[in-house]
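Second opinion, please. Pick holes in both lines of this record:
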Amino acid sequence: MKRVYVNEQWCLGCHLCEYNCAFANSGKRDMVEALKGKPMYPRIRVEGADAITYAVSCRHCTDPLCVKGCISGALHIENGAVCIDHEKCVGCLTCVLVCPYGAVQPGPDGAAMKCELCLKNSCGAPACAAGCPNGAIVYEERGETA
């Protein structure tokens, strides 16, 4: 299955992946309208400092602890991707605690949010990878993950 991978040595720390992600998941057609003067809620985030930066994103594990820990059944696997049913999420955020990669985070409405590979928006492929100017984020198939 295709997943988002980060090549840390190429990450510039520019945060464009965050902007592209937040815009892709905003439901708006215009980036300025979607993001200017508003809080951003990207499902990927750039971490690190100085010369070492990297993007943290869901790894869509084959045996995900977040799905196992979800008390409401909101987290599930859909077409190989770990997704959240926001109607079922009760906001307990157990998934945030059990994710070993720090990829699940609280959303603006109190429910959990995470990368869903842009499957539920009109992008068709992850906007973070498409908008990365240096090719540090790629969407490709590799060997199995956790």
User: Anything to note?
Assistant: The chain is about 20% helix and 20% strand. The chain has a mean pLDDT of 91. The chain has two domains: 1-57+120-146, 61-114.
